[in-house]
Design brief:
Shape: flat
Largest sheet: none
Strand content: under 5%
Number of helices: 5
Number of strands: 0
Distance between the termini: 42 Å
Structural class: mainly alpha
Length: 97
């Protein structure tokens, strides 16, 4: 978490968003659901790329499911899908022949 905050303060937004994704995922694995939600919000606040923002929202959706807040889980899950699809369009995969 300290690294994510440090990078955010330093102005490296994309790197900070990636760091917040890592610490949000760690919090999810550790069962710290409030931390997942807060860290994901901070990552998105850094201007995360669509694919990273989608993964952050996915982590939030899962945290809300575990908290029993299914309405917010649905909202965050739909946001995750939208952002992940936007990221896929922005960065199409190479076709290997």
């Amino acid at each position: 978490m300290a690294l994510a905050e440090h990078v955010e303060i330093g102005g490296a937004s994309a790197w900070a968003a990636d760091a917040y994704l890592r610490v949000a995922d760690e919090a999810l694995r550790g069962g710290d659901l409030s931390a997942v939600i807060e860290r994901a919000d901070r990552g998105i606040g850094c201007g995360a790329a669509p694919d990273v923002a989608g993964r952050l929202r996915r982590a939030q959706a899962e945290a809300h499911i575990w908290r029993g807040d299914l309405s917010l889980a649905l909202d965050r899950g739909l946001e995750a899908i939208e952002r992940l699809e936007a990221g896929a369009r922005a960065c199409p995969r190479r076709r290997w022949r």
